[in-house]
Amino acid sequence: MLFNSYDFLFFFVAVLLVHLLPLPWWLRKFNLLAASYLFYMSWNPPFVALLWLSTLIDWCAAKGMGRSEDPLTRKLLLLLSLCTNLGILGYFKYAETVLEYFTDAMHAMGIGYQAPAQQWSIVLPLGISFYTFQTLSYTIDVYRRRIEPCRSLLDFALFVAFFPQLIAGPILRAGQFLPQCTEPKRPSGQQFGWGLSLIVLGLFLKIVLADGLFAPSVNDVYLPGRPVSISDAWIGMLGFVGQLYCDFAGYSTCAVGLALCLGFVIPANFRFPLAMTSVSDFWSRFHITLSRWLHDYLFLALGGYRRRRARVAFNLILTMVLCGWWHGATFNFLLFGLLNGLYLVMQFQLRRSPVGRLAFWETAPGKAVLWAFHFNLLAWTLVLFRATTFEHATVMYQTLCGLGPATTYSYLTDAQFLFVLVPLQSIVLLHWLFRELTVEQAVSRCPTWLWMIALSAMLTAILLVPGEPAEYVYFQF
Amino acid sequence: MFTSSFDGSAQDATPRKSWGWCWLGVPILCCALVSSVEAYWRARGFRSDVPNTKELWEYWRSRVYDDDGQVIVLLGTSRMKADIDLDTVKQRLPRYRVVQLAIVGDSSPIGTLQNLAEDERFRGIVLCGIMAPLFDRPRWNDQRDFYGHRSASRQIRSTVCTNYLQEHLVAFNSRLRLTSLLTRWLDAHQLPKPDFKRQTFRRSLQYDFFRSEDLGERRQRRAEQYGSLYAQGDASNFVEMRQGLRELNESIQRIRDRGGDVVFVRLPSSGKRLQLEEDRFLKSEFWDRIRGDVLSPCIHFQEVPALAGFECPDDSHLDCRDTTRFTAALIEELMRVGEVAEMRPLSGAE
Question: Which residue in chain B is spatially nearest to A9 when comparing CA positions?
Fold first, then answer.
């Protein structure tokens, strides 16, 4: 059930109506939980069992940790949670790739091992990477005694499965969500109005910009095995920056809006990321909840910045490699993570050099230079993200440099060029204008009548633009 | 550098606005904008149009069931979609539900007919628009893309909801999508022109040839297409064709055993197209002999005076102004023939 589908519209209206009925709080929470499971089962019903398994084990493990004062018992319970969650994630997400690599390695060593890869194929349960990280954060926080174990299984199950953010985030923390479950609540008029606005904004980003304008050009350029001209390759590369942002931010914005309409506040996942002036700035604006998760549970666990430079560099690279690997079990994602790690290390070193300390970087022209450099860096790196294989990415890079298979034929029309360049420029401009603000602050500054016109225009465009509803890019992770 | 500002709580930073007024205004403004677009396209002569999707076909395919067998399923090609007016059928045979499952293109509907025959729940009457060459056994699976296709139910629901809106609003016509319009305008510096044909939600095709600017060319093109289709001598002779008819009769019998029936209809064509069709598949050589071999009644438009007088402006389809009369005449003929016993009581329902 996609947010951009009629199915979801009817589903959400039904859930909302029940949620607004004068029923006991536990019953309304149960309604949300049942709806969440139904929402998840609409893709592949059996996989809901994994969600239940993860919920039960983490709830029991956290309970045990809360009761026990014995460090060994607590550690063992944490280990149980980690092994179960990462084991499930590892099996479904990485087993097939690991087996392929193992087979290749065997062949390289001259051993004729043949994996039964053709007979079985593992289907990736939707949203597994997101809810696994969410539940892990809970058990780790309980282990670190940052939060108390949740007393109510209903509340905890709702935290794991809350449908607005179940499939592709934002990745919640127990400390953010569980306290909201204790007191009966209904959305206030302000929350409801803003929630609806966010839903419209999210759908506009997804349906009109990502699917309507960016995706057709990007899909035309990234067809594997078909040589494209240099100009097409550049448009495809830039278009994917816009598509990825609008697609994922569209989902997250809808998620925040839907939760708000139900009276729950969940964190924003984006803050004008295309106005970044450094790699770390980008990661603190794009998929914020994942960046923070990696920082808090991985980077700090590795020692963070409180080590020698070489160790910090290693920590940064390892964190970003795992970030890339989290996205998918392919060489491209691994390389994507590795490159981001290297960029962060270079930035770490440069900031400490005399060039990095120049006052020029704090001026407007300095920031413009930094933006231009980092925007290009991002666009080039995202080729790895979009290309289907490493060979495909290599061909794209060659074409972008004018070294690819020679063709001057352009598959993209003039209109497609404009469909990528005009909205991308507009988005970047808006991001620059609001770079220091949050979306809420930006809208607060806008007069009500102007926001009303903007919402009407977006809603009209949503109605008049769409083709077939397309899946969100991040659903594959 | 690489930091977390997570403070363990979720902040409600909702912008303070008069949301009541805002959300009162948004639907009004949005309706005004969509209505303006709708009025503009209607003023330019555009009509609503529903795209021909497999999902819509699947939706109607799922509606062929009726415990009393009071459902008429239309199979065939674009002629069946264009020549039969569903409202007239509904008016003349009010007890029946009519389901349009014909598929555009020179494809044989026999595969779809067999698909219905194999469906134990189907007990209705099949009106199958067909020409002699489409009885040829190798062509029976022409429409497999439709009857062999299984879309996810959510995809069908989504398409059907969209199609339902497209039936009522011109602004939702897929040719008039903002992106399509912009593409056309930027690439060719022109806006689209109204189409002379449209499909409805019930999958009827309506040809309004008064709106067609290139009727002559269209007629010529159709004749050439047809000519090339059968020019290579790939049409079977009747002896080969006959071998498949036994299998076809088994399917017809299966439908009859459940209380349904099948009627084959040769729908009108005219001009050069008719001449080509008759040259390649002489009526006496093919149609008349097929009629002798199949269990079902076969109605040829040239044999029924009330059906023979219609002119197809593009040589292949009736104009939408003629379909009401043609459909009424065809229903009369179906009842007159009387071989379709289940249709007789319908005269009482008129």
Answer: B158
Q: Is the peptide bond before A170 cis (omega within 30 degrees of 0)?
A: yes
A142 near A181, Cβ under 8 Å?
no
> What pTM did the predictor assign?
0.84
The pLDDT of residue B192 is above 50 = yes
Which residues in chain B are closer than 8 Å to A215, comparing Cβ atoms? none
Chain A residues 280-319 with a CB less than 8 Å from chain B: 280, 283-284, 291-292, 295-296, 299, 305, 316, 319
Q: Is A410 on the interface with B (CB under 8 A)?
A: no
CB of A213 within 8 Å of any CB in chain B?
yes
Average pLDDT over all residues of chain B: 82
B11 inside 8 A of chain A by CB: yes
C-beta of residue A287 within 8 angstroms of C-beta of residue A378:
no
| pLDDT tens, position by position, A422-460 | 999 999 999 999 988 888 888 888 899 999 999 999 999
Residue A327 annotated among the catalytic residues of the structure: yes
Residues 6 or more apart from B338 whose CB is under 8 A from it?
B344
Q: Does A459 touch chain B (CB under 8 A)?
A: yes
Residue A381, Cβ density class (10 Å: 0-12 exposed, 13-18 middle, ≥19 buried): middle
pLDDT of res. B346:
39
Catalytic residue among A19, A327, A374, A392: A327
Cα B274–Cα B277–Cα B278 angle in degrees, nearest 5: 85
Comparing CB atoms, the residue among A190, A348, A467 nearest residue B16 is A190
Supply the ipTM of this predicted assembly.
0.79
* Tokens (6 digits) for A364: 């407007």
The predicted structure's pLDDT at residue B93: 84
Q: Is the pLDDT of residue A65 over 80?
A: yes
Instruction: State the Cα–Cα distance between residues A255 and A127, nearest whole angstrom.
Output: 14
User: Of chain A residues 251-280, which have a CB less than 8 A from chain B?
Assistant: 260, 265-267, 280
Cα distances (Å, whole numbers) of residue A45 to A48, A90, B172? 6, 20, 34
Question: Average pLDDT of chain A?
Answer: 88
Indicate the pLDDT class of residue A39, thresholds 50, 70 and 90.
Answer: very high
The residues in B 143-172 lying below 8 A from A, measured between CB atoms, are 154, 157-159, 161-162, 171-172
Give the integer Cα–Cα distance in Å for B255 and B253.
Answer: 5
pLDDT at A476: 67
Look at B178 and A291 and tell me if their CB atoms are within 8 Å. Answer: no
What confidence tens digit (pLDDT) does each residue in B245-290 have?
A: 888 888 999 998 888 889 999 999 888 888 887 877 888 878 888 8
Nearest-CA neighbor of A256 among A162, A186, A188?
A162
Span A44-71, mean pLDDT?
89
Query: What is the rounded distance in angstroms from the CA atom of residue A174 to the CA atom of residue A143?
Result: 13
Distance CA A470, CA A335 (A): 27
pLDDT at B74 over 90: yes
Residue B103 falls in which region: left (phi positive, over 0), alpha (psi -120 to 50) or beta: beta
Q: Which of B69-73, B113-117, B146-150 has the highest mean pLDDT?
A: B113-117
Instruction: Sketch the domain layout of chain A as residue ranges.
Output: 6-177, 217-245+266-446
Domain B54-154+204-341, CATH class in plain words: alpha beta
